[in-house]
Amino acid sequence: MAVGLVMVLLFIVQAWAQHDPAQVVGAVHGVAYLSPRLQNQTYPQIHWRRNSSLKIASRDSSAKVQYPNSTYKGRLELFPNNTLKISSLQKNDSSTYQVYLEDEAGKEHIETILLTVYDLVPKPVVNVKVIRDDPMRCEANLECSVELEGVTYEWINPSKILLAHVGDSEQRVSFNPSIETYICKVSNPVSSNSTLLTYRHPCSWTGESSAAASRTTTSVLVAVGLLLLLTLA
Fold this sequence. Notes:
Elements: H1 2-19, E1 22-27, E2 32-34, E3 45-50, E4 54-59, E5 65-66, E6 76-78, E7 84-86, E8 95-102, E9 108-118, E10 125-134, E11 137-145, E12 152-156, E13 170-175, E14 180-188, E15 191-200, E16 204-207, E17 214-217, H2 218-232
């Protein structure tokens, strides 16, 4: 009984694996190639669909190729090996695509490919919040951000060793007076970008993309509060 159950479960797992769609990633304005696994066999008729319903490309037995959907006008190319090329990618091209391969006996083989289109990562914006500022030690939070979802953050020190809290957009640092450079690297599956932050004694910071990185200190906030109290008095 147990052996029979194991065999059934194994069959289900294998069947699921066979139907697990291939995955392709692309960048906005870039190119994606959707390639079927079966390319060593000739199929008299094939066609590509989006979400199993919208036909976007086809080739009949006379080798005539058609692209019936205007949304992809001028952006598709169907190759002899049944690979579909999509150019000038847009974010809304992200979807599941099916290729229907029909042999001479009329039997149809279907493959599914998942396409995900990503924006290129822009240059990160960096910001510094100083926590402790005295002649012997500078302690600060280094902040890094981009206006994109689905990205990962890395903070790298001058020796190219990853700092703590890998994947966080914020990194706390503490060190003795010296000149140090830190790199914020932001990545997604198709691109990455980075920005440098340079520290100089006693606790000043210069960002690569600006004359000076934004900075907030506890002492400045306290001074502003005292000034308001004196004004009110």
